[in-house]
Amino acid sequence: MSITQRLRVPPGLKVLVTGGAAGIGAAIAEGFLEAGARVYVCDIDAQALDGFRRRHPAALGAVADVGREEAAAQAVHEAVRAMDGLDVLVNNAGIAGPTGGIDALATPDWERTVGTNLNSQFYFLRHAVPHLKRSAHSPHIVAMSSVAGRLGYPFRTPYAATKWAVVGLMKSLAAELGPEGVRVNAVLPGVVAGPRMDRVIAARAQALGLDEAAMRQQYLDRISLRRMVSAEDIAAMVLFLSTPAAANVTGQAISVDGNVEYL
């Protein structure tokens, strides 16, 4: 197989993307569909999911609250049934969580962030790994972390705590599942342009008493390339990790962030 052939996603690859109806998840799902993969998307937002499936009739999917194990189990079951197996799990679902000092955070907000960003990854792993072990196509797990999973993030402690935990989960699973041929990597997006980042910037500006434009510039000044990344940048890395070219890439926390120097 030539190098260029190794860089192609194998056609017919069976992929499950959580939180896949909008944002980074949608870009990932769209990339796999363009590459000829079979894709099952789950998302808590029924309207967004309907819109995604209208734009991409080949996509499969269902509404699921990833923070509930029974919903995760059902999503995995339906995906495996619909695609007759599973080769790639992209644990993408997540929320920004609250912004504020640790002494001002509400316990329900902390618990919701942990439930969506961390517990959901465990739920999907628990039910998907047995199917991945049976895959003959270099099975792979992508754990979506964040640049906040390698740097401290003042006033965003619930989010950062979950994203650091995701990296630890990935590192442990790479060692655990490697002997069975299952690869596990984490992708760490940086400052991703889009509505979600706009909301984060606005909330942090308010928490720090800054002008929103000044807050946005602070984020850019902390990036070596002085620019945000796109959802498509993240999707491209996820697709690469699912090609034969990445067959020996596992246990890695890979930043796609223009080199964020600090948060």
Automatic annotation (TrEMBL):
One of its GO terms (molecular function) is 3-hydroxybutyrate dehydrogenase activity. Its EC number is 1.1.1.30. Keywords: Oxidoreductase. Gene3D superfamilies: NAD(P)-binding Rossmann-like Domain. CDD domains: SDR_c. Pfam families: adh_short_C2. Belongs to the short-chain dehydrogenases/reductases (SDR) family. NCBIfam families: PRK12826.1-2. PANTHER family: 3-OXOACYL-[ACYL-CARRIER-PROTEIN] REDUCTASE (PTHR42760:SF133), SHORT-CHAIN DEHYDROGENASES/REDUCTASES FAMILY MEMBER (PTHR42760). This is D-beta-hydroxybutyrate dehydrogenase. It comes from Castellaniella defragrans (strain DSM 12143 / CCUG 39792 / 65Phen) (Alcaligenes defragrans).
